[in-house]
Design a protein that fits this description.
The chain is of the alpha/beta class and 222 residues long. The chain folds into 2 domains: 1-137, 3-Layer(aba) Sandwich (Carbamate kinase), CATH 3.40.1160; 139-222, Acetylglutamate kinase-like (Carbamate kinase), CATH 3.40.1160. It has 8 helices and 10 strands. It has helices at residues 10-24, 42-47, 52-76, 98-106, 124-134, 168-173, 181-190, 204-210; strands at 31-33, 81-85, 94-95, 110-114, 140-144, 149-150, 162-163, 165-167, 194-198, 216-219. It has a 4-stranded parallel β-sheet with strand order 1-4-2-3, with helices on both faces. Helix 1 (10-24) runs parallel beside helix 8. The longest helix has 25 residues, at 52-76. The chain is globular and about 50 Å long. The relative contact order is 0.13.
Length: 222
Amino acid sequence: MGEGAFGISPEIIRHVAREIKTVHERKVQLALVIGAGNIFRGVSGAATGMDRSTADNMGMLATVINSLAVQDALEHEGIPTRIMSAISMRSVCEPYIRRRALRHLEKGRAVIFAGGTGNPYFTTDTAAVLRALESEADVIIKATRVNGVYDMDPEKHPEAVRYETLSYKQVLHQDLRVMDASAISLAREEKLPILVFNMNVDGNIVQAVAGDDIGTLITEQG
């Protein structure tokens, strides 16, 4: 949403697409999971008294809207892209089928996994870990607004200290809120590394994919 209070910023979408293009040009297989906090958060809706299942369904549908915007920007950059949704809506995107997703990746297409897990009570974080495992990803790259995980909110506390590495156990025990606990636990069970970094810095996505020392890396050993 950029500097706005809600909605989609065309400038931010184009920035993300250009950054992803630099990775795609390196022949890296890319699977994307996009949240929808700029449109609607299921948890926030439930907090105002809305039925949790209804609120979560609204949030999952909102991820499809964001996914369509990102697909459009990526294809303007010349990147063939497919959206696969856990909630069937065949007129705008494909249904999620694991083997078809793997085939798209093999053919060099960027794949956007939309619609969360298709079930309420599961966050986009959990959907990201689930799809990463199903698509045999090497690493989860969580793009945020800050360069990694800190001991306190760096946007509120300038003295906050960044962790270069963390273990899944530390994240859970210290309640660091990198991802929700179920997502971290699933990644931990399958030993899937998570790299958290700032997506707003030019070139950071390429550096993350190249294994450069940026952000915070979360692994079994930390």
